[in-house]
Design goal:
single chain; about 120 residues; alpha+beta; Alpha-Beta Plaits; four-stranded antiparallel β-sheet; two-stranded antiparallel ribbon; flat
């Protein structure tokens, strides 16, 4: 079954890190991604651009309204995701717990519904 692993953290934390600290985080993500691939569960993933680059789109009464920024104000922002193919939710949770940002933010695990 496929699961989307959504990575949330406060962008300010990363912005306050030294280059060395940020490099260590990126190395940890590289190792995590490699481990996911070696285990055969990785189906995709990506880091997202900072939240200030987001555009929220709403359609009301047939009119399109675009707003700069995310839909809601939150302390943690969606920073990236992995798409995993795991045997069950317990396996997906085990992989999510290994995500480097799990120690400073939160990881949401959500199953995909196949509609096509």
């Amino acid at each position: 079954m496929e699961y989307l692993v959504l990575i949330y953290a406060d962008e300010k934390i990363y912005g306050s890190m030294s280059e060395q600290q940020l490099g260590e985080v990126m190395q940890a993500y590289g190792a995590y991604t490699k481990e996911l691939g070696a285990a055969g569960v990785l189906r995709g993933g990506s880091e997202l651009a900072p939240v200030h680059t987001a555009t929220t789109v709403r359609v009301r009464g047939g009119n399109i309204a675009c707003t700069d920024g995310p839909f809601a104000e939150t302390k943690e922002q969606l920073g990236g995701y992995y798409l995993l193919d795991c045997a069950n939710l317990d396996d997906a949770i085990k992989w999510a717990a290994k995500c480097p940002s799990a120690t400073i933010g939160s990881i949401e695990v959500r199953p995909l519904i196949k509609s096509v």
